[in-house]
């Protein structure tokens, strides 16, 4: 086991924060920290994500994370950009800027693409096509901007959208945020990317 703690920072919105999880340990950060520990790393977890954050808010979170000297960062953002109709090019540019700043500090970065909001129960069926198109466009732009800036892109939004559509129990009681089971599914999907980025040569 590597004796040096891996400083792992999670940035983004309510999904990154863990809103909807029944217990703090069920949130995304703690679940992924557990995956890293199972792989033999000692992990020092810091969650600087803020519920309600859009991509433009990442700059402030990166500033908060800077003193931590993170080895690895996960960014999960985009749902609020979609909900607030932020132009996808603007949202993607803000994500790219955050990745570049983290990479300048030597932090390995995993950027997860936005969720597909078309499968959220509250979305009227007549609007699902439009919402899915908007989600796909943001995901595409996020992936391009994050990869160009040096992140490992976890393009999992579409895959997870289908999983949530098939299993209503993955949503919490508010029918928008994930439940503890939903976070388990998201963490399992993101874990291979996080483990890859945690390798010393990845940074």
From TrEMBL:
Q: For the SGNH hydrolase-type esterase domain, which residue ranges apply?
A: 10-185
Q: Which domain of life is it from?
A: Bacteria
* Keyword terms: Hydrolase
- Name of the protein in its database record: SGNH/GDSL hydrolase family protein
Q: Which GO terms describe its molecular function?
A: hydrolase activity
What is the organism field in this record?
Pseudonocardia lutea
What are the TM regions of this chain, as residue ranges? none
């Amino acid at each position: 086991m590597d004796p040096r703690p891996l400083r792992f920072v999670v940035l983004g919105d309510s999904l990154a924060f863990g809103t909807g999880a029944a217990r703090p340990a069920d949130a995304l950060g703690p679940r992924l920290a557990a995956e890293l520990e199972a792989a033999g790393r000692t992990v020092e977890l810091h969650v600087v994500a803020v519920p309600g954050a859009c991509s433009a808010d990442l700059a402030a979170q990166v500033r908060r994370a800077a003193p931590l000297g993170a080895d690895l960062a996960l960014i999960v953002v985009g749902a609020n950009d979609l909900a607030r109709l932020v132009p996808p090019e603007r949202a993607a540019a803000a994500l790219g800027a955050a990745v570049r700043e983290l990479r300048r500090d030597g932090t390995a970065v995993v950027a997860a693409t936005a969720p597909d909001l078309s499968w959220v129960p509250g979305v009227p069926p007549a609007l699902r096509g439009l919402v899915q198109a908007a989600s796909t466009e943001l995901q595409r732009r996020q992936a391009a901007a994050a990869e160009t800036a040096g992140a490992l892109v976890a393009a999992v939004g579409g895959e997870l959208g289908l999983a949530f559509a098939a299993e209503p129990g993955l949503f919490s009681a508010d029918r928008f945020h994930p439940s503890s089971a939903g976070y388990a599914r998201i963490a399992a999907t993101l874990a291979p990317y996080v483990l890859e980025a945690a390798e010393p040569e990845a940074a």
